[in-house]
Amino acid sequence: MARCPLSKALLASVIVLLSGCAAPAYKPAVYSVASNRPYSIPAHRMILVVPCFDLLDEANRSHVDPSFNPSAYVTGMVESELSAGGASHERPAFPFTPTFEGVQTALRGGAFKHPGGVVLASAVNHYMSDRVVSCDFILYAATGDLIFEKRCLCMNFGSSGAPEILAQEQGEFIAPAAARSPSGGTLVAAHMVMQQLFADPDLQRVLQ
Amino acid sequence: MKLPTKGLAAALAACLFVSGCQNRAAVRPAWRYLQRAQTRVAILPASNLTDKAGASIIIDKAWEEALLKAGFTVVNADSVVTFSSSQNIPVGDVIKIPPAVLGQKLKADYILEDEITDYGAKYRVIVGGAVVACRSRLIEARTGALVWEFDWVRSEQSNNSNNGVAGVLVGALVDSVIDSMMDMPAKLARQGVSLSSLTQPYPGVAPMAYRQP
Fold first, then answer.
1. CB proximity under 8 Å: A 47-66 to B
2. CA–CA separation, B5 and B9 (whole Å)
3. Cα–chain-centroid distance for residue B184?
4. Which of A80, A163, B17, B156 is deepest in the core (most CB within 10 A)?
5. How many Å lie between the alpha carbon of B153 and the closest alpha carbon of chain A?
6. Helix or strand or coil: residue B153?
7. DSSP symbol at A64
8. How would you classify the pairing of strands B73-75 and B128-140?
9. Taken in order B69, B70, B73, B77, is the CA torsion positive or negative?
10. How far apart, in whole angstroms, are the C-alpha atoms of residue A50 and residue B3?
């Protein structure tokens, strides 16, 4: 039986439309520092903030709004926290390959000569929703020596967040409990990632 | 009969030495960030909001087994109870201790909190079943930040409705729930992030407390 080519096109359009409806593009609210953050940031050192590296995979990227730039957003998060803490910070003015190794190589070549200055590089691995964020942070001395590193991640699978992840866990019989957000706010994961970084005693110590 | 204590002690020491070597030599997959070497999780006794007295014990034990199986070092709920007794703190108030302090006292990197909201047999019109509902949270001790949270409920129909069914559910359920804690870092790391630097400490740098013996 001959099939109508129009029906195929119609079916494809419906699938595209449905997939678009099923997975709305994600874009976070403008980042603001938590009002009750339980840490302060030592403001004794000049901190060079390297723009965050974007390591999102395609699956993650397909969930986010094209206008949302996760690396710029995370860089902004870090700079907002530093500004709120009164710490001096600026962007690097020297060229480097946009990887952790590239930054370190540039520093070892004497690119940053600020006495006592440190360089904070980061990568965003995952930014799927307000509740699922993962970033890596490495702090270098001006000489390129690594002085602190940490993966900061928050997976807040409450009940309303990250439905695409929950779907894998639900199966036939596991379901999220009633909706509630005890941690409050919508930027829960971003705030928790910042807290994991800036409240870390090791980072606090090296920034003294 | 005189026990060969010296021999037993030597054998025990040998076993500990070998097991210690095995632990150090064992290389966990680099993408399991939360399961990096020597990660210690303290299980706070579950807060039980139901009228089923044994629920918290079952949940705590299920978590202990699941975490041990996943490669963590565990400070179990019994140890936390012992700690609270030694400090003259009601066990229910342990959760009020600042995470950084609690982490230091218990020598734990992470603190697992559970709140049981439903547990036990349910009777419906046609068939009965069991239900378990809980909120689980993993807190990074040194910063007090939330790392992972999962609110979950599981129900299963059964003609043999009693609390024992709920107990059976818990074991399987915790295994499932812990996957949500484990698999995400796995997925994250498969994106090409080099985690070797996060599992191999740099000379003179120990980013995580208690990470290395």
1. 55-57, 60
2. 6
3. 17
4. B156
5. 5
6. strand
7. B
8. unpaired
9. negative
10. 66
User: In the predicted model, is pLDDT for residue B6 greater than 50?
Assistant: no
Distance from CA of A90 to the nearest CA of B (A): 24
Contact A98, B163 (CB under 8 A): no
User: Encoding tokens for residue A203?
Assistant: 């980072």
Helix B55-69 and helix B163-189, axial crossing angle in degrees, nearest 10: 30
CB atoms within 10 A of CB A88: 14
The values of phi and psi at residue A26, to 5°, are -100, 140
**Residues A160, A165, A169, A170, Cα dihedral to 10°:** 50
Which of B77, B155, B151, B150 minimizes the C-alpha distance to B120? B155
Supply the pTM of this predicted model.
0.74
Q: Touching check for A125 and chain B: CB below 8 Å? A: yes
Q: Can you tell me which residue has the tokens 């030597």?
A: B10
Preferred mutation among A103, A122, A139, A174 to probe B, highest tally of B CBs within 10 A:
A174
Q: Rounded CA gap, B174 and B63, in Å? A: 6
Residues in chain A: 208
Which value, to the nearest 10 degrees, does the dihedral of the CA atoms of residues B85, B90, B92, B96 take? Answer: -100
**What is the average per-residue pLDDT within B139-156?**
83
Residues 6+ apart with CB under 8 A from A122: A50, A52, A53, A74, A75, A78, A135, A136, A137, A138
pLDDT in tens, A32-44: 999 888 999 999 8
Are A71 and A54 in contact, with CB atoms under 8 Å apart?
A: yes
Q: Count the Cβ atoms, other than its own, within 10 Å of residue B78.
A: 14
Distance from CA of A49 to the nearest CA of B (A): 20
pLDDT single digits (tens) A178-199: 333 444 456 678 999 999 999 9
Strands annotated E in chain B: 40-43, 47-48, 73-75, 110-123, 128-140, 146-158
Record the tokens describing residue A131, joined without a space. 């509740």
**The complex's ipTM?**
0.79
